[in-house]
Amino acid sequence: MKSGTGIQELMAAETRASQIVAEARMGRGDRMKQAKNEAQGLIDGYKAEKQEEFNNMVLSKGGSEGNASAKLQADTNKEIQDMQAQFQKHAQKAVDVLLSKCCEVSLEVPTARIRATQKAAGVAS
C-alpha cells in the first residue's frame, strides 16, 4: 500500500509542478505586456515633454524669425537623429537583457519550501 500512495503522491507533485510552470509562463507574458505598456507611457510622456520644450523655445526665440527657427529645427533634427542612432545601437542589447531575465527559470526548490512541505506532510527531517 505504501508504494501505491508514494506513486500517487509523486503523480500529484508532478501535476502541481506542471501547474506551477504553466502559471509562471502566463505570469511572464503578463509582466512583459505590462512592461511594454509602461515603457510606451514613459516614451509618450518624454515625447510630450520635449515637444513642449521645443514649442516654448520657438516662441521664446520669436517664432517669426525664419533663421532662428530654421536653426532650431536643424538642431532638433540632429538631436533626433542622434537619439535614433543610439536606439539602434542599444536596442538589441536591451531586448537580449529583457529576454534573458524573463526566460530565466530556476529549477531548484528553495529549502524553505522543502521544509514547509515536509512539515505539512508530517515528515521529520
Summarize the structure.
Helices cover 86% and strands 0% of the residues. It has three helices and no strands.
What does this structure look like?
The structure is a single chain. Helix 1 (2-60) packs antiparallel against helix 2 (66-102). The chain is built from three helices and no strands. It is mainly alpha-helical and 125 residues long.
Helix % is: over 70%
What ranges have pLDDT less than 50 throughout 5 or more consecutive residues? none
User: Whole-Å distance between the termini?
Assistant: 23 Å
Mean pLDDT: 85
Helix/strand order, N-terminal first:
HHH
The number of helical segments is 3
Specify Rg, calculated over alpha carbons: 28 Å
Structural class: mainly alpha
Number of strands: 0
How is the biggest beta sheet arranged?
Answer: none
Q: Looking at the structure, what is the overall shape?
A: rod-shaped
Strand percentage lies at under 5%
Features:
single chain; mainly alpha; 3 helices; 0% strand; rod-shaped
SSE layout and pairing:
Elements: H1 2-60, H2 66-102, H3 111-121
Helix pairs in contact: 1-2
